[in-house]
């Protein structure tokens, strides 16, 4: 399967959605997105960590050091109240965009 490039801003939505279920460390977030996308999306560290730091600065997520499942020190990220609100807003925007693209694909001749 060929690699799918994410649209700008889509990574934030995916990370927020994955963190809605439970706090996770960066590698776990990337793995969960990869798994949930049926191996179609692979998030590289060079994209993920800058996005996590940006979302942390915006107050959408917060981080705390902990120990991962393989007994390593890792930073665990979780949604804040502001992050939950952002997830709702970003989901609505994504749904409008997907519907509009779908309309063009269905109607264009």
Structural write-up:
The longest helix has 27 residues. The chain has four helices and three strands. 58% of the residues lie in helices and 15% in strands. A three-stranded antiparallel sheet has the order 1-3-2. The radius of gyration is 15 Å and the shape is globular. It is an alpha+beta fold and 109 residues long. The protein has one domain: Winged helix-like DNA-binding domain superfamily/Winged helix DNA-binding domain (Arc Repressor Mutant, subunit A, Orthogonal Bundle), CATH 1.10.10.
Characteristic terms for this protein:
109 residues, three-stranded antiparallel β-sheet, globular, alpha+beta
Number of domains: 1
CATH superfamily: Winged helix-like DNA-binding domain superfamily/Winged helix DNA-binding domain
Radius of gyration in whole Å, from Cα?
15 Å
Write down the overall geometry.
Answer: globular
Within the largest sheet, what's the order of strands?
1-3-2
Number of helices: 4
Second rung of CATH, namely the architecture: Orthogonal Bundle
How would a crystallographer describe the biggest sheet?
3 strands, antiparallel
Could you say what the CATH topology is called?
A: Arc Repressor Mutant, subunit A
Identify the quaternary structure here: single chain
Indicate the structural class: alpha+beta
Order of helices and strands: HEHHEEH
- The CATH class is identified as Mainly Alpha
Task: Give the overall pLDDT as a whole number.
Answer: 93
Tell me the number of strands: 3
